[in-house]
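Structure (tokenized):
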């Protein structure tokens, strides 16, 4: 009587194929990052953000797909978490860092230094096993450099102001304040999802208009972004229950 094979071989070939398809779907985010980088090199900034937005969609869908198809059980030799971190580093950190550096919106001396700091601190943040809390919050500024780059191009602040704000965000990467996950955090989840949807619609409009949008659109984007980044800090200051 033959011994059973490794646990993953107990799953049908079709199940293993579907599970590997999820990994391919996740890895497509890396290909999207390459296209976004090519657009950035050409200074087609709106197109770059469009591709980064598509990468966000892939990042939002691959996790639920992986859980639904039990990818970790079916293909235990392949780390979906590691693959996700590799792709996220490209789309959340590396491509945006280039865009920030090459934007011409920062002080000339500060731009390359900030770009290098973003890449280094972003890599360290992704390697930190404490980056997420048990209640679905991020610890420190969660390396959302695609978002920071988006607001830099949207608002086009004076070079000194933009440089200082980005430097502060670099430092906040290692400050132990908490930032909610707008979908997984349980407190006000319905409100958070609605606001995230509004933000996505307004962001698409801004990108389609090459960031030439009315003041109210920019203000609404800033309000939602500020809510996501700072709401947990306010809740803590008021002594309210976070969950």
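Design, position by position:
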């Amino acid at each position: 009587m033959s011994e059973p094979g490794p646990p993953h071989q107990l799953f049908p070939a079709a199940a293993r194929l579907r599970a590997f398809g999820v990994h391919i779907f996740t890895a497509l985010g890396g290909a999207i990052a390459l296209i976004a980088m090519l657009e950035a090199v050409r200074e087609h900034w709106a197109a770059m953000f469009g591709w980064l937005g598509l990468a966000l969609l892939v990042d939002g869908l691959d996790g639920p797909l992986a859980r639904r198809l039990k990818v970790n059980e079916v293909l235990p030799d392949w780390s979906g978490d590691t693959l996700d971190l590799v792709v996220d580093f490209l789309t959340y950190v590396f491509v945006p860092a280039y865009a920030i550096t090459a934007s011409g919106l920062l002080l000339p001396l500060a731009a390359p230094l900030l770009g290098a700091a973003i890449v280094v601190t972003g890599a360290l943040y992704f390697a930190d096993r404490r980056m997420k809390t048990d209640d679905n919050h991020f610890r420190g500024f969660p390396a959302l450099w695609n978002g920071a780059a988006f607001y830099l191009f949207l608002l086009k602040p004076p070079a000194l102001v933009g440089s200082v704000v980005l430097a502060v965000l670099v430092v906040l990467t290692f400050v132990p304040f908490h930032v909610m996950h707008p979908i997984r955090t349980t407190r006000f989840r319905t409100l958070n999802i609605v606001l995230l949807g509004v933000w996505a619609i307004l962001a698409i409009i801004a990108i389609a208009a090459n960031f030439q949008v009315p003041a109210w659109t920019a203000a609404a984007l800033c309000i939602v972004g500020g809510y996501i980044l700072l709401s947990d800090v306010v809740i803590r200051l008021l002594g309210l229950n976070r969950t």
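Reviewer-requested clarification: The longest helix spans residues 13-41. Residues 7-238 form one domain.
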